[in-house]
Amino acid sequence: MKSEITRGSLVLIVMISLIFAQIGRADDKKYTPPPPPRAAPRPQPRPTTPAAPSRPTTPSRPTTPAARPTTTSRPTTTPTSRPTTPTRATMPARPGKMQPTPASTTQQAPGVRVPRTSLTPPPPAATQTTHSSTTPPAHASIMVPSGSTTQPVHPGAMPGHSFSPPPGAKAGTGPGGSNTFSHADGRKWEVNRDGHLTHFSRPGTDARFADNGRLLHAHVVRADHSEITVRNGPHGQRYELVRPDHTRVVGLGPHRGYVERPLASRPGYVSRTYVVGGHSYARVYRTSRYRSVVYYNYVPAFYFQPLYYGWVVQPWPAPIAFDWGWGADPWYGFYGPYFAFAPFYPNASLWLTDYLLAANLRAAYENQAAADPSDQSLASPAAQNTPATLTPAVRQAIADEVRQQVEAERTAAAQPFASLPDLPRPADDRPPPALDPKFRTFVVSQDLELDVGGQTCMLTPGDIVVRASNNLVEQTKVPVTVLSSKPGDCPASSSGLLEVADLQEMYNDFREKVRDGLKTLADNQGKGGVPAGPAANPREVMPELSGPDLFAESELAKQQQAALQAATEVQQDAAGT
């Protein structure tokens, strides 16, 4: 009996052991031991000893995700005081389910399934990088040192906007707190403290820009060894082309300029054919040098007889009123607040002064109209703070120099013309007539930029300047002061520097217009109140030096297009494109 009981107990024990072993194998098929969690989430309560009858139904659970809320999307939650109790929430995901990204910090509510896209880690946040002297990659804002502060320079900018150098350029520091960039191919940029490009150069090219991106000046050496210089002013573009044969083509605005060629028969002399509004005429100049300054001295094609000059410099018997016929001209109405012809003329010098001023103001008006034909401001008088800015004192200063010039021509006319009078040889190194101490007041004859303490302002034809000194500054410049100016130009009393060569061109234009006025005065003797006098009887000095270039107008049009193309290429190169 005991042996049967013992045998039965053993069988029962074996059966119970087999049952528990089967249960264990079923659990092993459903779960794997979890690795130690990095940060255990808050455990969800569940029975630690599952009921035996429920085990056979658990194999279907992998296909029912809703029955098991995924709480492992909260790996950064602070563990509770019961971190060691393993739960299904801490078990790894079943095969075929997306693993949560450890870096994700998405908060997931229990029972809510997270879309797959929400489990993708977000891109790393943008960080600001400190760059070395090598240009950073394109499309990245850079910080350029500027003294004690930094200025942002944005990529892809054109000149005048925040500038970004091309890849491979090295940064440096320029004068006045500016920033420089240089490239291995020879290109160089200079950027001001505001991040705007102000200077660009490469082999054969040098250019300067205004803060608004406008090209101010560019000098380009072309493949045929010719050189072209472009200057942009408020009233249009001026360009100068110099060819290897020393031919010069100078554009002073639309349909206005000159073509200069050396005279083979007269070494040292050049002939210029001026084109103004479709009309052409020729002038002759002698090339000279003074220290570092190359300048051109006007050579008269003819002189009047000495008796006529003597009559011009003498006072007239009585002041006269002269009707110039300008009343209906657009330029005269536009500059009415600045200039009005004198009601009476006691002598020819004042008469010639108004002729000279009117010719330059007409040129200024035509330049502005040609640069922008749609400019509606030209239809009304220019605004002026004070009436008749050309005061009697300024007029008289110009008249005194007109009289001096007439006296000088009277002396020259009395000399024999076997050789050209009063022309310095190149070896003499004599100062140009524009630096003559007796001649100080100048009438501006073309658009110019005046350097006023590092800043520039514009001078246009009809403005008046006085030379303050004969001493050269920066080798090629002299100081001047503005005596009178039109609205929008350099204000009166402004002081700055002008190139000696530009001042000499004013002097040449002054002589030419005085001679034109002398011819007009001779034609009006005995008319309109002008008293009669000796005949002018002009006599040519050297006829072979005169004669306009028949192809000058077409040459100017051709080179104007070349200048526009050169300016466009410079701007593209400067922008790094």
List the helices and strands and how they pair.
Elements: H1 2-30, E1 142-146, E2 149-153, E3 170-173, E4 179-182, E5 188-191, E6 197-202, E7 205-209, E8 215-221, E9 227-233, E10 236-242, E11 248-253, E12 256-262, E13 269-276, E14 279-290, E15 293-299, E16 302-303, H2 306-313, E17 315-320, H3 330-334, E18 345-347, H4 348-371, H5 392-413, E19 441-443, E20 448-452, E21 455-459, E22 464-467, E23 477-484, E24 495-499, H6 500-523, E25 539-540, H7 552-574
Antiparallel strand pairs: 1-2, 3-4, 4-5, 5-6, 6-7, 7-8, 8-9, 9-10, 10-11, 11-12, 12-13, 13-14, 14-15, 16-25, 17-18, 19-22, 20-21, 22-23, 23-24
Helix pairs in contact: 2-5, 4-5, 4-6
Summarize this structure briefly.
By secondary structure, this protein is of the alpha+beta class. It contains 7 helices and 25 strands. Helix 2 (306-313) runs antiparallel to helix 5.
Protein traits:
577 residues; alpha+beta; four-stranded antiparallel β-sheet; 23% helix; 24% strand; elongated
